[in-house]
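Input sequence (116 aa), recorded before submission:
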Amino acid sequence: MALAVVAGAFGAHTLKSMLQPASLQAWQTAVLYHFVHTLGLLFLLRLVGTSALMRWSVRLMAVGLICFSGSLYLLACKDLIAVRIDFLGLITPLGGIAWIGAWICAALGIKSAQMQ
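Predicted structure, token format:
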């Protein structure tokens, strides 16, 4: 959560004057999803227990954070980086897919625990 706060402040105070509006919007999207899914990860960590589904949910949530928000942070700053990173646009949707899988595993894990 601290990293999400730092990223949000960095975008609002430092990058605002350096990025094009579309890039700043991508940064803000990364921050929003970073916040939401970090909260989700904290929630899931409380429920992990011994359930394999819940452990997969946590893993997929972490992968989603790195792939989705991480790639968007970098892509938003691509004009400031001297290295071509356009290929990261292929990574972003994988993060979204990981999050979908995480939430499905969590739902199945919770349902399975309730049935026991």
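Checked by second reader. Residues 12 and 28 are 9 Å apart (CA to CA).
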